[in-house]
Amino acid sequence: MAIIRSILTLLFCFFTCGAVAQLQQITDFGDNPTNVGFYIYVPQNLATNPAIVVAIHYCSGTADAFFAGTHWAQDADTYGFIVIYPQSPYEGTCWDVSSEKSLTHGGGGNSNSIANMVTYTIDQYGADASRVFVMGTSSGAMMTNVMAATYPELFAAGIAYSGVAAGCFYSDSNQENGWNSTCSGGQSISTPEHWAEIALAMDPGYDGARPKMRVYHGDADTTLAPQNYYETCKQWAGVFGYNYDAPEEVQSDTPMAGWETTVWGPNLEGILASGIGHDLQVQGAEDLKWFGFTIEKYHDTLFCPFRGDAPEDETGTERKRKRVLVPGCGRGYDVIALSLHGFDAYGLEISSTAVSEAESFSLRETVNPSPNNFGVLGDTTSKYTPGTARFLQGDFFDSAWSDALGFKFDVIYDYTVWLCPEPGNPA
Fold first, then answer.
1. Predicted confidence (pLDDT) per residue in 210-227, tens digit
2. Four-point Cα dihedral 294, 298, 299, 303, nearest 10
3. Which residue among the candidates 113, 138, 139, 339 is catalytic per the annotation?
């Protein structure tokens, strides 16, 4: 009976106790000049050529606390990626984002140790070097910005929760792990160009691709003043060459009520949370989307042009068409249907043959939609101004195909969700 009870307990824990594997400490991973702790989570269902997420804890935190208190280990079990949890070596466990050695590529500071953890993990587990991501909260967010500036070649994307711009905590006396009250109080204010110069100077010989960045901050933060949100966004806007004063889009109540998302371009988004202090809630599902582990799923009605996405508004002024990406578009049915509904739709396929076949099919069906293929959708040309249907070759999880596009998609389409019904018909 005791054996049965033990088995039931193990089964219950498997389904309810979170991460299945264990956090491991690695002590021999190459140069570690500042004695940063290296803890790693490798899921039992490790993917082939897995991605890596570097999750950096806050002041007073530890690797174990960040492992237990964030979603990354559970998500690693689902998606098969590896999570690196660095641990600060200092009393109080803040990160060194103030000394010259940590603010310099190969300088021998905390950032150098974390970079060596990444290269060790890539080599040890055959990880995908093009899918390495970094995130952190508070002091960990400061280090996230520093990692993106000092080792841009290592990371595809970063997420900083309640941090400051890279270099903002710089110490005139070159103090290691120093506190900068001017920066924390929101008094370090400069231009996008100047902030970009600071970030670029951390790895002056580098001219390659840089990680796209998402910046979160609460507008009631009394630990790291909200002005740091604006300064961080200025920095990355300057790095990517965006006009900070003219963002591409501002979205209210996104991703939560009272939160505002500002999009400067495909490589930079800022999210300001109204009424939220320093303890900003990490957005697990949003993190996974930003890092490309999931694609955004929309309810059917969000695809309906007659419910808000029509090419013209009530004044007759043409709206910006929404651009929709359909990964794994196959023959192109969904791409064509979306274009018939007034969207500019792009299908993505790995195979050049599949792209050619979809283009041929699209040429026929967008000119004269067949009811046999699309049913009532074949009649949408009488209701909506059709958009375009285009096809791209590439792997959704490799950003190389999108580098030359120069724009961000408004919607990533989940092909398992069909389009909305015609007006007047129930969903």
1. 999 999 999 999 999 999
2. -150
3. 138
Residue 138 a catalytic site member: yes
Q: What is the pLDDT of residues 312-323, one digit of tens each?
A: 444 444 445 678
Based on C-alpha coordinates, what's the Rg of the chain? 24
pTM greater than 0.85: no
| Residue 151 · residue 115 · CB < 8 Å | yes
Residues 274 and 390 in one domain: no
Which domain CATH number covers 187?
Answer: 3.40.50.1820
User: 251, 270, 290: which is the final residue of a domain?
Assistant: 290
Of 263, 290, 317, the residue at which a domain comes to its end is 290
Q: How many other C-beta atoms are found inside a 10 Å radius of the C-beta of residue 56?
A: 30
CB 254 within 8 A of CB 272: no
Whether residue 421 has a cis bond before it, omega within 30° of 0: no
Domain span at residue 155?
A: 20-290
The count of domains in the chain is 2
Residues 266 and 317 in one domain: no
Output the six-digit token pair for 171. 């110490």
CA 371 from chain centre, in angstroms, equals: 40
